[in-house]
Design brief:
Layout: H1 2-11, E1 42-47, H2 50-60, E2 64-71, E3 74-75, E4 81-82, E5 86-92, E6 100-106, E7 126-130, H3 134-142, E8 148-159, E9 165-174, E10 180-186
Length: 218
């Protein structure tokens, strides 16, 4: 089962849906009859400098660091001590088993290529994070050094499977390594739940921002 899980994670586009706030999370297990023997544990981003990534993911977004280790050190065939080659940090939101985010830095690569902010295309990834306090939290996120705002919070609508729409307060940024990160607030019933009835936009308070098309939707 573990091999199957790793293969799916390696071959699939990374999609991470997290909830973080003092309120109850949307995350819940599917009915027993619908479960499969596979879980998507985490998505891991290869970053240039973890210490420049943590101000975004730990401090501004609010994820909790549960693991921070340097890996790969030891001794060579001649008994000489070799330094660690990787630093791995794992962060979580509201689940101890699934939906984690990994940050990996290759310590033996001192000069990685410069970050480039560009629209995600085939072969790229999009990390999706859900924040119930997006309006307030976005101010912290956009102030992090190295973060570039792609789209400030704005309401968009996805078609619901059963008709109607799924309203979402959408925002997106590029992190210090150029990864495209969506930080959203679901305003109605999320996809995959029993209720996806159309929502009344007049009952939802949304901050006034210029209307733009999310970069990954263009």
């Amino acid at each position: 089962m573990l091999t199957t899980t790793r293969a799916i994670i390696a071959g699939a586009m990374m999609l991470l849906i997290m909830n973080f706030s003092g309120m109850a999370a949307h995350a819940q297990a599917v009915p027993e009859s619908e479960r499969v023997p596979v879980d998507v544990r985490r998505a891991t981003l290869i970053v240039r400098d973890i210490d420049k990534s943590l101000p975004l993911y730990r401090d501004a977004i609010g994820l909790k660091v549960v693991y921070d280790q340097r890996i790969g050190g030891g001794t060579d065939k001649d008994g000489k001590v070799t330094p660690p080659t990787v630093r791995l940090v794992l962060l979580r939101a509201n689940d101890v088993f699934i939906g984690a985010l990994g940050l990996m830095q290759r310590l033996n690569d001192p000069n990685p290529p410069a970050a480039v902010n560009k629209r995600p295309m085939a072969g790229n990834s999009i990390i999706v994070i859900n924040a119930k306090d997006l309006e307030e939290r976005f101010e912290k996120i956009k102030a992090v050094p190295g973060v570039t705002v792609a789209t400030p919070p704005e309401r968009i609508e996805y078609p619901a499977p059963g008709g109607g729409v799924i309203p979402v307060l959408f925002s997106a940024v590029y992190d210090p390594d150029g990864f495209f990160i969506e930080i959203n607030k679901i305003l109605g019933a999320p996809a995959g739940t029993a209720s996806t009835a159309p929502d009344d936009p007049k009952k939802i308070a949304v901050p006034a921002t210029p209307a733009t098309t999310p970069p990954n939707k263009k």
